[in-house]
Amino acid sequence: MKTARLSLRIDLPNGTRFGPGKAALLTALREDGSIKAAATRLGMSYPRALKLIEQMNSSFAAPLVETQHGGSDGGGTRVTDLGQEVLDLYTAICDASAAASTDQFHTLLKHIRD
Amino acid sequence: MKTARLSLRIDLPNGTRFGPGKAALLTALREDGSIKAAATRLGMSYPRALKLIEQMNSSFAAPLVETQHGGSDGGGTRVTDLGQEVLDLYTAICDASAAASTDQFHTLLKHIRD
Question: I need a labelling partner for B95 at 20 to 30 A (CA). Which of A70, A96, A108, B51 fits?
Fold first, then answer.
């Protein structure tokens, strides 16, 4: 069976991009609450995950990810409300795009070599 | 003014991708009829353009780009009917996606740092 995947990227004014990689990282951070765990799960290096988080935090009006050091729970990493909203908007854009282009996408699939 | 751009990529079964770079190359090849001229116009190296053409030609059921050597017109490069159809489908997918996600995209723009 032929499989192809549509993915969507947003080029931001500061030159960075928001796409599937950052969306997956936000999702994993929300579930794991730890940069190390999220990076491991995604097969991403820790420095790479840190770099993507820095890019996201500097691209938006407020941070998408916050890291707390120490405290009674030993600190942790939290996706902020804005981070969650950006992730939800990105997911909604992907879903709306896929739904709107189903016919053309299937026609394209027919021309792809197996 | 904040500007952000939505771009769309299709991950093909053979591991290659079709996105804005290949679409721009097909468009330029159609207009210029020459790999060298198209690459120059796009600020792309000639070997890079050749590589993208090879990837496209091996990803679809038939070539998207044909090169003729010699002949009375000195040869040239031609975007095939399939190449034109794939380009048109990609453009249609991009247009349908952008139209379907306008509201979410504008909401996202509000959160982007100037």
Answer: B51
Chain A residues in contact with B63 by the CB 8 A cut-off are none
CATH code assigned to A17-106: 1.10.10.10
**Cβ-contact B14, B8 below 8 angstroms:** no
Spell out the domain ranges in chain A: 17-106
Residues 6+ apart with CB under 8 A from B112: A12, A13, A59, A60, A61, B2, B4
The pTM (predicted TM-score) of the whole model is: 0.87
Please answer yes or no on whether A61 and B12 come within 8 Å at the CB atom. no
Q: ipTM of this complex > 0.90?
A: no
Q: How close are the terminal C-alpha atoms of chain A, in Å?
A: 7
Nearest CA distance, B71 vs chain A (angstrom)? 30
β-partners of residue B78 are B66
CB atoms within 10 A of CB A27: 16
Q: Which residues from B are below 8 Å from A83, CB to CB?
A: none
How many Cβ atoms are within 10 Å of A111's Cβ, its own excluded?
16
pLDDT tens figures, B56-83: 999 999 999 998 876 565 568 999 999 9
Burial B67-87 (b: 16+ CB within 10 A, else e): eeeeeeeeeebebeebbeebb
Cβ pair B86, B29 in contact under 8 A? no
Residue B55: strand, helix, or coil: helix
Residue A32's pLDDT band, with cuts at 50, 70 and 90, is very high
